[in-house]
Amino acid sequence: MEVEVTRDEQLRALAALEAVVGNDDAALTVLAGDAEELPLAALLAAYGQYVFRRVLFVMFGVDATMDRDEVVRLVAEINGDPMARVLFLLAGALRDQAALADNGPSAVKLIGKTILGVIHAVSDADDQDALALLGAMRDQILESD
Fold first, then answer.
1. In 3D, which of 145, 121, 117, 139 has the Cα closest to residue 17?
2. Are 55 and 118 within 8 A, CB to CB?
3. Are 16 and 31 in contact (CB under 8 A)?
4. Domain ranges in the chain?
5. CA-CA-CA-CA torsion for 20, 21, 24, 27, nearest 10 degrees?
């Protein structure tokens, strides 16, 4: 089941990924939030699923200007692609890992490192490039107001 991630949750997830890159346990502890918020491990798993979907859309050329029939055709291609199926499986594994995790920095870092690993694998980005990409993603969210 896919969890929708709100704008504020996306910003929190991006901050958590930046803290993972910086190995900043103190920031992860603050970002863990309170009982009213989605646990950080679960949030990162949901955000990872969102990122994986965006990566696949970019890889397959899906964009907002396409008509419905073209999007349906490309989504069918995505669903049939072995790499896409691996990403779907990985997203499910992250969700399962988050369900079993406490909300401490160690579990959050494992999930975050997997998401960053996918970003590295599809973009050849190093940690500095990943930080720039995360910053650009945050700017995009903030500009959408």
1. 117
2. yes
3. yes
4. 7-143
5. -60
Q: Which amino acid is at 16?
A: A
Residue type, 1: M
Name the residue type at position 40: L
For tokens 């803290």, the residue is: 19
CB atoms within 10 A of CB 58: 12
pTM: 0.87
Q: pLDDT 10s digit of each residue in the chain, 145 long?
A: 556 788 999 999 999 999 999 999 999 999 998 888 899 999 999 999 988 988 898 889 998 899 999 999 999 999 999 999 999 999 999 999 999 998 789 999 999 999 999 888 887 777 677 788 888 888 888 988 6
